[in-house]
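quick one before i forget lol
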Amino acid sequence: PEEAERVHQHLEDHLHGKSPLYEMRRRLKRKNGTWGWFEDRGKVVARNRAGKPSRMTGTIADITQEME
């Protein structure tokens, strides 16, 4: 929760064309209740006629071992 605003801002910057990619490292809580480090990467791959994003692709990778 403490990272939510920062994550949202990075995503919004990308969606508005202020950055070529969305890339973020952050902690997330897993279903089993443990915390891990994850890397999100994404990119808008299509925009509508008004220039708004209409399609985005991306990945989320568990990088916990790299961060320890």
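fyi The CA atoms of residues 39 and 61 lie 5 Å apart.
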